[in-house]
Every structure is written in C-alpha cells, then in structure tokens.
C-alpha cells in the first residue's frame, strides 16, 4: 500500500511539475543553445544605400565613403528618385520600407510573408500597391545594373568583423530558449541584422511564411566615427535585442485583447503628458503604449534571467524613474511573481491579460482625472 502511494505521488510530480520545470528552464538543442543568426544582410545594405543616395543624412565614416564613391554614377537611377519621393510621404514613415522588404524573398523580391493588419507599417497600404510594386521593380534594376552583389562581397570581411563579436556574445547564452520559456511560445527562426548604414537603434520585423514565423531584428551602429563603426555587443543586446524579441511575442496578444485594455486608454494621455519623449517612442496611441510597456517590463525580467539582478534593476531604474514608463513599476512584479510563480495557471503571457487589466484599472483610478 505504501509503495502504491509513493508511486502515485511520483506520478503526480511527473505529470504536473516536470512540464512546468521544462517550460521555465532553458532547453538544449543537440547539445547546444538554439542559435541566433547574426549577419549583415544584402537587402538591408541595398535599401540603405539607395536611401543614402536619396539624401538620407548619415554620419560619415570609411564605409559611407566607399558607398558614396562606388555608387556615385547611379545617383539619378530611377530607384533613388522613387525612394526619395517615398521618404517624403508620411505613408512610408519610420522604417516601413525596411519592414516591407522583409516580406519578400531576396534578390527576386517575390512575396514570402503573410501581411497582418496590426503589423503592417505602410500607412493606407491598399492605396499604395502600385507604388510598392514599382519600388520592388526599380530595386531589382538597381541591384542588377550597379553590380551590387559584387560590392557586398567585397566588404564581406568588414561585415564579418562586425558580426562575429556580437554572435559570440549572444550565442553563449540560452537567449531563444529563455525568451520562448518566458512567453510560452516559439518562432521558427531568430536573426539579428547588423546594418552599418542604418540609423542608431533597432526595429523588429516578423515574416509570417507558410513554414512558420521568422523574427528579424535590424540594428544600426551603437557608435560611429570617421575611422570605425561600433556594434557594442552588451549594449545592443540589452537595449535592442531583448526589447524587439519581447515585442515579437507581446504585440500579437496586445492586439488580440485590445478591447479588454481599452477601458483604461486614458492612461495613454496621462503618461505622455508626464514625459513627451515617451509619446514619441510609442506614437501616442494606446495599443502601442500597452505593447511598449509590456515589452519593457519583459526586458527587465529577461535581463534578470540572462544577465543578473544588477543589470535588471538598472533597466527598471532607467525605464521607470528616468524615462517615466509609469506602468513598469507594477508590471514587472506581476510578471515576476504572479506569472512566473504560477505557470500551471498561466501557460502563456497572453493568459495573464486579465491580471494586467486589473492593474491598469487601479492605475486609471489613481492617474486619470
């Protein structure tokens, strides 16, 4: 009888607690961590080169000098003229052209991704289909006539010298496993694109292919001077990689449950009035405000898991006390205590939405007048 009881207890432990442990613990794939690709991408260099020729201001360095000299004969190419006009159109603001290119194969630029309404970064997309089709056609022509592939291969040594230290730093950690365990989901692939001609900062892009969801994070130099380009591994990992990985998982469930969040939308104006820089970062709409807060809260938690308490506490200090992302103070404990403390109840972070809404309700009573 006693043996049967012990076996029963062991069975309960195996059924209920081992899956939770596996969910929370970083997994190994074939004896090593799931690899995150760190690359220079030819399509990113192509669009950045054309934007530079179209007049985008970039800090001068030896690489921009090489680009300027090599492509000087093509300053009046039809692709440059078209991109210049597109950059002056609010429909293509921000990094929408970069997002758009990653929905297509390269260099053929054939459709690969399934567009989703919440992720589409081209304003009034249906109204601009003809222009976007022409954009792809002229990019292909520029790519062929300039011998762009030759230029890209000639600089492979430089690209590799930028990518290798970042890859070494990131892939010594269980980044993908930790992120996937945190959110209770997975993506087919994760890639970090280091883009020497891109603006400082980063953007996250998802491409929804028939084979799965592919996450690409494009990051510009963390510093640049006439003699060198710098992609500081620790800085870009903390500030951009974890942030954009969090967005890849947060944004879909924020969009799915936005009707639940909308009762507290007055918080958006309250927060932006306290700090106008915050409004610039999320665009001013409530859905983006929620997604930004959740991404930043997850940044803190992921930093704690991967980099330790000191860096995580610094992240929270920077985000809450200095940058005034006011909802972080409550969101981080909800993630660390309620969510991670009860993964039997909360299989994915989307399951936590009612608790987040309850917290927002309390903040609305305190902050909205």
What descriptors fit this protein?
single chain; 369 residues; alpha/beta; 3 domains; 4-stranded mixed beta sheet; two-stranded antiparallel ribbon; 6 strands; globular; disordered N terminus
Number of domains: 3
Low-confidence stretches: 1-31
Helix and strand element order: HHEHHHHHHHHEEEEEHHHHHHHH
Tally of DSSP helical segments: 18
Shape: globular
Question: Strand percentage, roughly?
Answer: 5-15%
Mean pLDDT: 87
Distance between the termini: 65 Å
Strand order of the largest sheet: 1-2-4-3
How many E strands? 6
Describe the structure.
The chain is α/β, with parallel strands linked by helices. The protein folds into 3 domains: 41-156; 158-232, no CATH class; 257-367, no CATH class. Helices cover 58% and strands 8% of the residues. The protein has helices spanning 2-16, 18-24, 42-53, 62-71, 78-87, 96-101, 129-145, 148-154, 156-170, 175-183, 233-256, 258-261, 266-274, 276-282, 286-307, 309-322, 328-339, 353-367; strands at 37-39, 189-194, 202-209, 212-219, 223-225, 228-230. It has a 4-stranded mixed beta sheet with strand order 1-2-4-3. Strands 5-6 form a two-stranded antiparallel sheet. Helix 5 crosses helix 7 (129-145), helix 13 (266-274) packs across helix 14 (276-282) and helix 15 crosses helix 17 (328-339). The longest helix is centred in the middle third of the chain and has 24 residues, at 233-256.
């Amino acid at each position: 009888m006693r043996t049967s009881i012990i076996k029963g207890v062991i069975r309960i432990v195996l059924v209920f607690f081992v899956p939770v442990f596996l969910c929370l613990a970083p997994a190994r794939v074939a004896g090593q961590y799931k690899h995150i690709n760190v690359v220079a991408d030819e399509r990113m260099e192509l669009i950045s080169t054309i934007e530079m020729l179209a007049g985008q201001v970039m800090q001068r360095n030896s690489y921009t000098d090489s680009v300027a000299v090599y492509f000087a004969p093509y300053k009046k190419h039809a692709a440059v003229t078209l991109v210049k006009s597109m950059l002056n159109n609010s429909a293509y603001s921000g990094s929408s052209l970069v997002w758009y290119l990653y929905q297509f194969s390269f260099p053929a630029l054939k459709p690969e991704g399934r567009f989703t309404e919440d992720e589409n970064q081209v304003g009034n997309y249906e109204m601009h289909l003809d222009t976007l089709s022409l954009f792809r056609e002229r990019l292909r022509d520029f790519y062929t006539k300039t011998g762009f592939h030759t230029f890209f291969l000639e600089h492979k040594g430089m690209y590799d010298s930028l990518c290798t230290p970042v890859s070494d730093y990131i892939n010594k950690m269980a980044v993908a496993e930790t992120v996937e365990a945190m959110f209770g989901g997975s993506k087919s692939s994760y890639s970090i694109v280091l883009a020497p001609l891109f603006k400082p900062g980063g953007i996250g892009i998802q491409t929804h292919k028939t084979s799965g969801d592919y996450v690409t994070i494009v990051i510009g130099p963390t510093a640049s001077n006439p003699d060198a380009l710098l992609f500081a591994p620790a800085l870009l990992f903390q500030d951009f990689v974890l942030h954009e990985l969090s967005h890849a998982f947060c944004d879909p469930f924020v969009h799915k449950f936005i009707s639940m969040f909308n009762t507290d939308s007055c918080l958006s104006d309250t927060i932006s009035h306290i700090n106008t820089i915050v409004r610039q970062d999320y665009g001013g709409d409530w859905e983006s405000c929620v997604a930004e807060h959740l991404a930043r809260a997850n940044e803190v938690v992921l930093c704690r898991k991967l980099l330790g308490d000191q860096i995580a506490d610094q992240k929270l200090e920077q985000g809450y006390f200095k940058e005034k992302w006011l909802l972080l103070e409550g969101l981080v404990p909800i993630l660390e205590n309620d969510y991670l403390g009860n993964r039997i109840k909360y299989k994915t972070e989307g399951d936590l939405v009612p608790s987040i809404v309850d917290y927002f309700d309390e903040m609305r009573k305190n902050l909205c007048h």
